[in-house]
Design brief:
It is a single chain. The chain is mainly alpha-helical. The chain has one domain (3-458): Glycosyltransferase (Alpha/alpha barrel), CATH 1.50.10.20. It is 59% helix and 3% strand. A two-stranded antiparallel ribbon has the order 1-2. It has a two-stranded antiparallel sheet with strand order 3-4. A hairpin with a 2-residue loop joins β3 and β4 (378-379). α5 packs antiparallel against α6 (135-156), α7 packs parallel to α9 (275-290) and α9 (275-290) packs antiparallel against α11 (310-331). The chain is globular and about 60 Å long.
Amino acid sequence: MNRREFTRLTSLAALILPRQKDWGLITDVNQLHPNAVKKQCIAAFKRFEQVWNFNDFWKRGNTFDACLVFADALHKKWPADKDVIAVLKSIDSMLEENYRYFKSFDAGKMWADDFGWWGLMAINARKHLLRSGNEVLADKYTKLSIELCWQQEKEHAYDFSDTAKPVPHGCRNGDADGQDKGVKNTVTNVLFFLLSCRIYRLLSTEKQTGNEQYLEMAYHQWLWFDSWFKLTGYGYLQQLGNDAVLVMERPTAFFDGSDYKNTTHPTWEKGWLWTGDQGMLMAALTELLNIKNDIAAWIMRNHADTGFNSAVFENSINHYIKSLAKGVNLGLIGNTDNIIREAPFKANFGPEFGNDYLAGRGILMRYMGQLGNKAGGVNFKKCITATAAAIWHTQDVVTNQFSPEFTSNESDELYAQQYRKLTGLGDPAMKWQIQAMNEQQKFGVCQSIGLDAFGALINQL
């Protein structure tokens, strides 16, 4: 650690830890000072209140999901705290405005994955609104999640044909009007996978009927991913060694007749992967484990899969979760500072879609926090703590605005070298090329990354 980094980290110690502690020596998250963390969380939210109301459909859904998951963690940790209660009340009115925003759009003009982000957010909105006693708006968000978001993906993105090679079905990230068919990338498919699981669990918990179609689609999405993962020759799962893997941005197969040759929308780069996909896939697989018995019973009732074996099914899910967790730990966390990073690919950072992929680190931490202290058998406490610390220390001290960059140039290059040595792929270290990004969108997304990090941190206290 160089002098600059040491100064940065020890300065942060005075903010987030008891004054006598040295951040650079902290290995146990229990040494964090909860009241200091709570104050930082409140400050982070107050800034989010100022920047969240921007105009961008998918980013709006994702950033508010970050806010809701963060607020849920706050509530669980400090349910009676007056400042936390004030945060929850503010979110009530923000959800009213967000619902009006969603309804103002023509659904036919939106991309398929946009509805996945909003569908997941709507389920968390329902939970929040029921807790605050607003059943009317909670039911509107349930309808939004199921009848608008899930149905849109099913009708306009899912490939019902059996002809796609080498793997049939899956979802295309096209627009609902069909002007652009899009590509069957990971984010579109994992969003539909996770959303199907969560809608099924929601309806089952509330004893509602007519929920088998969500169970069926969750299983079909599992088959799509599992089929690809078994085709090891195509490298959809990046093998990092020691049973550690990361999932690529999209599955590709370059042969005559393949339906997976698309290298545009956005421009593909060999080995390219995104942090957000890793967190969502671990979450979807974990949700699948929670409904494994229901799936087995549904298959038996409907004779849906003659080769189904419940033990093999469960073991496969657990294997993928553990392998992905190991992959994140090995490939997406800097060895020198324990900070969670985006994989070093121009496709992530570049001007074409850097403003979209910017949010990935937060999305990964969001699901890390929800999955618990040892997701997939890996303890992520240290990296969540270090990342939240770095985000806090690099904020604007006047506005409490978080930055897209919260690591040093030197440590970024060390990480890029670490990644290339591990995989043989990737580019030199680079900064986020988001100069053309609307400023308020940038502020909102960056603040949501911080909320994701602090939400995960709260769950470690």
